[in-house]
Amino acid sequence: MIDRRSRTRRLLEVELPILLIVVFALAPYVWMVLTSIKPAADITARPLQYLPSTVTFEHYETLLARTSFAGNLLNSLIVALGAVAVGLAVSVPAAYAFSRFRFRGRRVLMTSFLVINMFPIVLLIIPLFVLMRMLGLLDTFIGVIAGHSTFAIPFAIWMLTSYMNAIPRELDEAAMIDGATRLQTIGIVIMPLVMPGIVTTGIYIFVTSWNEYLFAMMLSGQTVRTVTVALQLFIGEFSIQWGLLTAGGTLIAIPVTILFLIVQRRLVGGLTAGAVKA
Amino acid sequence: MKPASARARLTITPYLFLLPALLVTAAVILLPVAQTAWMSLFDYVLFRPRNIPFLGIGNFIRAFNDPVFWVSLWNSVVWIGAVVFFQFILGLGTALLLNQSFWWRSAARALIVVPWALPSVIIGLMWTWMYDFNLGIFNDVLLRLGVIGEPIAWLARTDTTLPAVILALVWQGFPFFAVVILAGLQTVPSELLEAAEIDGARPFQRLRHVTMPAIMEVVATALLLRTIWVANSLDVILVMTGGGPGYVTHTLPLYAFLKASSAMEYGYAAALALILTALLLVVVFAYVRRAAKDLEI
């Protein structure tokens, strides 16, 4: 069908429209990055100066030297790594149980983890704030990481269960017949095979936690403030300094864009099975 | 080892593996949800901790009589309908195009998912910047093309704000549909399409009678999932407009959130959050039934 189509027709009917869609998808991003490397005079020039007259990193320097942004980047990194650690530590064993055992309540529990992931954030965020205040965990890493594990755990359990289901059970049975204990079997057979799945799930938790705004805003103060919250505060504070704001936006966006591009191909399977948050 | 104890071990092992997940989930999800339900029965205002009168269903009656609640509910319906519809249409179109073969297809597929990777705060920032009254690129381009005579305050006018925010969210969410539908399309057997073509079906007829029925399952799941996320999402609106001007971009989750975070009326906010959850339950139920269908392997 495609062979018969002439090259020009394919160009007009497929490549041109898809090029327009790619431009639409990237334009806001490109515009943000361009703004961040323009001299201040270019940004306020009218009519607009689309391309920078000279490339400058002054906004990045100001942002990192004069504001708390560098510290906020570090906080976000700690929170995201913490969410990955907590999420994976409790979800790998849970996924193993769901994949390798048939037990009473399995279906109900798995379904519950799916339903939990659909709960509106507002339903959890209000009591979590009250709870963390009571426990004295407001503005601590533990508090924000706990908030992020509300979405990390259900998602990770579903993703990892589907990865583990893809490993043939004959492999663990063979290991156990050869005399390996259950824990040895997990260590020698299951873990190496499921590692790509664990990495993908971990990266996805990292990206979601790094991007998260509402929990971080409610549960953090000055000490553990993450980048998304800090940037949102800057929008109020430096309302007309778009160079500074777009530099911050670019610094936040680039790491997650790269990570997301690495895992995106492997995500599709887990998507409709469940738990990917937008 | 005695058989009886072996069987006992067999039954308890999976629960041991599940224990950490269950404990953490109980602490960070179940307990808070129960607390929300409890709080919704009181007139709990954060800065008035000593005086928390019991209201029963008073907060729910208050919502029923609250005009802002009804405005927010209506906005939510418009918001969900428009956002999901346009995301789906654009995503379907993108997926159909990406299902053709051309030499830079995998590059196009990778680039298209970029909006999906970005945090909502950045999306809000980018689009607020593009909509800027003085220096925004939208006004600039439209003025240069002569479409408008003078700049428009996109995020301050009652008639343009909601569409402007909807466009930002369509941009963010269409890659999800594109990727999911593309995965569905790749399972449609090409013999089926070739047979239809030999039988004289035109491209649109092939799409309608062969392709669409084959990907209906995937599309339905994606639509349900997306409806739930869009219904719950409030951060892009919060960043771009804070719900304004007036109540023009107040949606139900945003209203609940603002009642808690600015007004500190936790009891009422909890009631609003519960109403939202109850309204969504039908969609969640439909989705979970689909997703849990192949659990019994």
TrEMBL record, chain A:
PROSITE patterns according to UniProt: ABC_TM1
Any single GO CC term annotated in Swiss-Prot or TrEMBL for this entry: plasma membrane
Protein name (Swiss-Prot/TrEMBL): Multiple sugar transport system permease protein
Regions crossing the membrane: 12-31, 73-96, 108-129, 141-164, 185-207, 242-263
Residues making up the signal peptide according to the UniProt record: none
ABC transmembrane type-1 domain mapped to chain residues: 73-263
Membrane topology summary: Multi-pass membrane protein
Keyword Acyltransferase applies: no
PANTHER family: INNER MEMBRANE ABC TRANSPORTER PERMEASE PROTEIN YCJP, MALTOSE TRANSPORT SYSTEM PERMEASE-RELATED
SUPFAM superfamilies recorded: MetI-like
Pfam families cross-referenced by the UniProt entry: BPD_transp_1
GO aspect biological process, one term: transmembrane transport
InterPro entries: BP-dep_ABC_trans_perm, MetI-like, MetI-like_sf
TrEMBL record, chain B:
GO cellular component, one term: plasma membrane
Topological category with respect to the lipid bilayer: Multi-pass membrane protein
GO terms classed as biological process: transmembrane transport
Tree of life domain: Bacteria
Keyword Transmembrane helix among UniProt keywords: yes
Name this protein carries in UniProt: Carbohydrate ABC transporter membrane protein 1, CUT1 family (TC 3.A.1.1.-)
Locations listed in the record: Cell membrane
TM regions (residue ranges): 77-98, 110-130, 164-185, 266-288
Keywords: Cell membrane, Membrane, Transmembrane, Transmembrane helix, Transport
UniProt xrefs under Pfam families: BPD_transp_1
CDD domains to which the protein is assigned, alphabetical: TM_PBP2 (cd06261)
Domain ABC transmembrane type-1: 73-287
Assigned protein family: Belongs to the binding-protein-dependent transport system permease family.
Organism: Devosia enhydra
